[in-house]
């Protein structure tokens, strides 16, 4: 008990030592532009408004990709596009194909050439990979970040943003390491899960981390998002995001807790908490709870 306490105090007192184990200049988030990664069931107006604002405001062109949904066809009134228009976005285009040959044509890519925002809708994330991976369209998504825009998405549209594609199996969304494992990698060295608290998915990430222990795991609850600028991920929205980095953190000052071994740990971040994706630590807690508090 006492030894645990001393070790904890030592760890808290030596943050600079801990930093040396990480490469300070590894960019895990995008070098330019930003990400809004939503854990499913996006309702909150303030999250939609962040997406529009980060795209550059109501007149910024935003392209909505419904492809994860798996419907036979889509028109310009796909639900997320309608919501974005209701939220004030004036230039919203729905863009869809299941055919990578089509996705590789200049004609198809045209609406993306001046887009400042992308929104990936929900469904099955492997459909986005099958349609767009390696095509001109995928390159054009990346270019939106390059010109300082925002890539956003909810549910499947969250997971696609990781370098590792969580739940990428064509047979079942319950398989964490499936027949598709490569995402679009806007967040590097990371796997992203969604709907985590509502569906009690909080242990599922370990299926991925057992196989790929160097990945950072993040799991986001519904109507909650990570807003990412370079290596900073800030929680916004309704509930919590979970971090799996082999460490533990609590907003209780001087905490001494019984916690599981590193490969079984996770902890929660609430709205306003800021996490450094490269250092893998909380850099700005939204509030602390003092001893005896
Ligand atoms: C990044 O850090 C490494 C050492 O960890 C250093 O050698 C390299 O020059 C740095 N690169 C930049 C761009 O700062
Ligand atoms: C989309 O909705 C608008 C407004 O209700 C309507 O005028 C338009 O015809 C619809 N477009 C399609 C392709 O259904
Ligand atoms: C990251 O967050 C820290 C702490 O809030 C802040 O000082 C820094 O400017 C932020 N960097 C970016 C790129 O947002
Ligand atoms: C800080 O956390 C509280 C409780 O979750 C929340 O009400 C508040 O909005 C958060 N502040 C910020 C800046 O997000």
UniProtKB/TrEMBL annotation:
It holds the Pfam family Peptidase_S51. InterPro entries: Class_I_gatase-like (IPR029062), Peptidase_S51 (IPR005320). The keyword DNA repair does not apply. Residues 1-18 form the signal peptide. SUPFAM superfamilies: Class I glutamine amidotransferase-like (SSF52317). Belongs to the peptidase S51 family. This is Cyanophycinase.
């Amino acid at each position: 008990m006492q030894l645990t306490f001393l070790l904890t105090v030592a760890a808290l007192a030596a943050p600079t030592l801990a930093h040396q184990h990480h490469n300070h200049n590894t960019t895990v988030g995008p070098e330019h532009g930003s990400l809004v990664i939503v854990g499913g069931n996006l309702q909150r107006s303030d999250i939609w408004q962040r997406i529009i604002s980060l795209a550059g405001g109501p007149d910024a062109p935003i392209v909505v990709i419904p492809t994860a949904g798996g419907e036979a066809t889509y028109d310009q009134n796909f639900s997320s596009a309608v919501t974005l228009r209701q939220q004030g976005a004036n230039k919203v285009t729905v863009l869809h194909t299941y055919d990578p040959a089509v996705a590789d044509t200049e004609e198809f890519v045209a609406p993306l050439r001046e887009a400042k925002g992308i929104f990936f809708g929900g469904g099955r994330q492997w459909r986005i990979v099958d349609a767009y991976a390696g095509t001109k369209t995928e390159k054009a998504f990346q270019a939106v970040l390059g010109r300082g825009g925002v890539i956003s998405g909810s549910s499947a549209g969250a997971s696609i943003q990781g370098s590792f594609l969580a739940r990428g199996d064509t047979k079942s969304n319950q398989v964490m390491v499936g027949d598709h494992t490569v995402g679009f990698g806007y967040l590097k060295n990371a796997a992203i899960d969604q709907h985590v608290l509502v569906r009690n998915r909080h242990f599922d990430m370990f299926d991925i981390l057992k196989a790929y222990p160097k990945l950072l795991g993040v799991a986001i609850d519904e109507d909650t998002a990570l807003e990412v600028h370079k290596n900073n991920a800030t929680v916004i929205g309704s509930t919590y995001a979970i971090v799996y980095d082999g460490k533990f953190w609590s907003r209780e000052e001087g905490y001494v807790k019984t916690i599981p071994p590193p490969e079984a740990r996770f902890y929660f971040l609430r709205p306003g908490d800021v996490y450094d994706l490269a250092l893998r630590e909380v850099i700005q807690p939204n509030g602390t709870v003092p001893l005896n508090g």
